[in-house]
Design a protein that fits this description.
alpha/beta, single chain, elongated, 486 residues, 14 helices
Length: 486
């Protein structure tokens, strides 16, 4: 086969994991190319705020002590030991080195935090750099180019090439729809999962939500790498279908105060106008996302009276959304924004009314049912005791003062996790558990870090693993090239 160019390493995907692999490959003296099908790098990492690490110097200088043993046990216990111990251990023992590596790239860490202070059991592992992970991506891309990595944008990999059971390169299509053949001793797949592929979402998930889910992550996360690895002989991880879901408003941004009001732990009803849950589940957006995906229609209504709105404006929220809406932030834009949303005749997911019965009509639910549920909830608020779902008193706000609002919350997704079977060296494994020489999988395409749900008690896990798995794969490739295995 005649190639257009030869490299030691070809990386498919220019997000956090892919760029981490490319920079490390170049540092190790290996020639490298990155194929990114979008016009810019970053993928879902561009939307991330921080990444996890354990026993890092950034934690230690702030007096924060999260041991690697504690992190390992948290991952394993949270996954009910469905995660792969060797892979989890490899990540846990190297994530602190990633902090040092990113700082060498120019990252400056502003703080180390948790995502939801009221959520019990959360470890203080969320390392937040200036400019978020988007800035880290900029630094990695600049360093990759400076070190001679060839970056091909708007270029889609379509096939991983094998010969005699060995990886020999990648077939791609460039922006002009011209075929490009790149030879390689090793290929690293870092395409970000399949969150933007409805067919795969339905095929691999527990809930048939592929056509309804709201993708908030990278538009290019369509499962290309998964398909290519399977065609090259790779195997799926047993936890395929794990994804990071959360309640979200359609046609809104993550900075929206109306959206933030919608996931506060106040009063939620399902499509039949019935309260169905302890709304405190909203303090853990991952659990709340799994919950909303399981509901009929994959949605719920968050119903607010002026009592809750005044609390959000004057006192602050109960739970934020990362750095985009901070925990306990006063939602000062909420009254104007939510009124404008409700007045927008083209929008159907925010409605308002002066009576609960009229609100029900606009929601499309039974008015008698909604009124009885609101009356029951108001009695709970008056008593200060939720003897139905046992929500804490501080989250009980009555619904008596008009105008009333209802916000339709649906299922949003940032990323999928847990797809392809790998070992602790990030090597792709076949159906018999044997490594495929020269084929590596990192970031959200890799399986083994989680069980059925994303590990919310360890904030920053996805990007921590993305950045760490990238450079670990590059180091393993370099060692095997040097030993003539590849």
């Amino acid at each position: 086969m005649e190639f257009d160019a030869h490299y030691d390493v070809v990386v498919i995907g220019g997000g956090g994991s892919g760029l981490s692999a490319a920079v490390q490959a170049a540092k190790n003296g290996n020639t490298c190319a990155v194929l990114e099908k979008e016009a810019t790098t970053g993928g879902s990492s561009s939307f991330a705020e921080g990444h996890a690490a354990f026993e890092s110097d950034e934690q230690e200088k702030r007096g924060i002590h999260v041991s690697k043993e504690e992190a390992f046990n948290t991952y394993m216990d949270y996954s009910h030991w469905r995660a792969k111990p060797a892979l989890v251990s490899k990540f846990v023992h190297n994530a602190d080195k990633t902090i040092v590596k990113m700082r060498e790239e120019g990252a400056v860490y502003e703080s180390v935090e948790v995502t939801a202070p009221d959520q019990p059991g959360e470890l203080v592992t969320w390392h937040l750099p200036e400019g978020e992970v988007a800035r880290v991506i900029e630094l990695l891309e600049a360093d990759a180019v400076r070190r001679g990595v060839d970056l091909f944008l708007s270029t889609s990999a379509v096939e991983i090439l094998k010969q005699d059971g060995k990886i020999i390169g990648v077939k791609a299509v460039d922006a002009n729809n011209e075929e490009v053949l790149l030879g390689a001793k090793a290929v690293v797949v870092a395409t970000g999962g399949y969150a933007n592929n409805p067919e795969m979402m339905n095929k691999y998930g527990k809930h048939n939500i592929g056509e309804r889910v709201i993708n908030v992550g990278g538009a290019g996360n369509t499962g290309d790498g998964i398909r290519m690895v399977l065609n090259a002989g790779g195997a799926l991880n047993s936890n395929i279908g794990t994804r990071l879901l959360f309640p979200f408003m359609r046609d809104k941004t993550i900075t929206s105060h109306t959206n933030a009001a919608g996931f506060q732990p106040y009063f939620w009803v399902d499509k039949d106008a019935k309260r169905f849950v302890n709304e405190q589940i909203g303090l853990n957006f991952g659990n709340a996302g799994d919950m909303v995906a399981s509901l009929h229609g994959s949605m719920f209504w968050s119903v607010l009276g002026q009592e809750a709105i005044e609390h959000l404006v004057n006192v602050g929220n109960e739970v934020g959304l990362g750095i985009y809406v901070r925990n306990y932030e006063k939602l000062v834009n909420l009254p104007i924004e939510i009124a404008a949303d409700a007045a927008d005749t083209a929008r159907t997911n925010v409605v308002s009314a002066d009576t609960i019965e009229e609100l029900a009509v606009k929601m499309g639910v039974d008015g008698t049912t909604l009124k009885s549920q609101v009356d029951e909830y108001n009695k709970i608020c008056d008593l200060g005791v939720d003897d139905k779902f046992y929500k804490e008193k501080k989250y009980l706000h009555p619904i008596r003062k008009a105008p009333f609002y209802a916000i339709k919350m649906e299922t949003g997704i940032m990323i999928t996790m847990g797809a392809l079977e790998i070992d602790e060296c990030m090597r792709s494994l076949d159906k018999n558990g044997n490594a495929i020489p020269g084929l590596y999988v990192v970031g959200c395409d890799a399986g083994g870090m989680y069980g059925e749900s994303y590990a919310l008690p360890v904030p920053g896990s996805a990007n921590g693993f993305a950045l760490t798995s990238g450079w670990l794969a590059a180091d393993d490739i370099s060692a095997r090239i040097n030993s003539k295995e590849l």
